[in-house]
Design a protein that fits this description.
By secondary structure, the chain is mostly helical. The protein has 24 helices and 4 strands.
Length: 466
Amino acid sequence: MVKTDPSLIAHLYRRAGFGASFQELKTLSGLEYTDIVENLLNPETIDPMETDILRRYHLELNDTDSIVPQKGEWIFRMVNTPRTLEEKMTLFWHYVFATGAGKSMHYPASTTQISMFRRVCLTNMKTILMELSKDPAMNFWLDNCENHKGEPNENWGRELLELFSMGVGMDNSINYTEDDVKVAARAFTGWTFTQPLSVYPFGAYPSQFVYKNEDHDDGMMTFLGHEGKFNGNDILDMIIPQPATARFICRHMYTFFVADEPQVPAWNIVPPQDPEAIKILTDKYEETNGDIKEIMRTLLTSTFFKESRFKKIKSPVELMVGTMKIAKTLEFPGPTLVGLANTAVAMGQNLMYPPTVEGWHTGREWIDAGTLNERINFAVGQFDSGTAPGLDEMVSEINSRGELDSEGFVNSCLELLGYVELGEETKETINESFSSLSSKETTLNTKDKLVTTLQQIVSSVDYQFG
């Protein structure tokens, strides 16, 4: 018995994951929506994905002098992990706490940071910001290793306030001052990391956080109106309960999981498109002191989330992973695995290499003439040869529906792709194309018709939305 509309589940899995196959949606529709959300919110109850097979077939994953294979491994995880929300949250925090691998060129630190996001992604802001503050990749990226007693470096302290917690302001509010930035820098003096061993000849040994008390500024300070001798931990304790932090983090969550918003630098002058939704999320943040799982539960079960279908443009990685999940073209780590990272780069998203500490500009800024062409070519290519493993399951489903006219066939294909919605003009064009295809003297089999129709759908502008 169907308890939940499968099209709603498809929407949930696009946003809280990277999509789901038609058969998965069919199975999940027998559950109540709240139960499906709870399963997503508790990944620890599901066995983690086995990764041994990756290294069996891709020895280059042990080459820590290159990060391209590791980026391919991450994409493979996104496609195949049974812990769907965990991986999507990992990607979310990579967006918010953008850290580039190119500065340090010590790639084990970058992959360790991604693993850290995976481990703490659904905990709380204190845990997450504490782990981030101690993370060697972030420490080097924002120069806190150069932040010394008597010679402060403000880079980490500034971005902690500006981009990782309070924001420069929303609704024209002033959340902190230049003096607060300077004090944050002083409080984090002595927070550094051990010098990592050389990759050659030692291998992939990550560096570790270390606190040097002798290098810490223990003088009196004033931060956000509080006076005392502060350490980094104290700064986090004062930042996390701030209403500004609640608004800033919750707007990030809305932008990533619900609907495209203006880019972060505009948030101090452009109000949220749905202030009531942001208030619902910030109220939960303040009620739980930044419990991310609780905020996500509120978000995923909200009316504004359920009504936000196809209001986001898929990022390159979301487009790639979602299409491969449907086509089932990356169930096995074949020879194309490593090249996937460069495919995402061609579409404008270089994992572990965000363009700035601000991260990627999202929404319509993902799309231009060149990247749209790359996106369409990739999506069409997943069904090109007609050998995609997911096609057999789709053919079986189509055949089970009996004789279908053009509209019925196209609607079935939209369902098989995850209940995709098309504009009237696009849908009419594809219906006409199918009618023309069906009237040809040489009768095409179901699979040929399916492949042609799927390719037309995934090459549409409408398919860029998720």
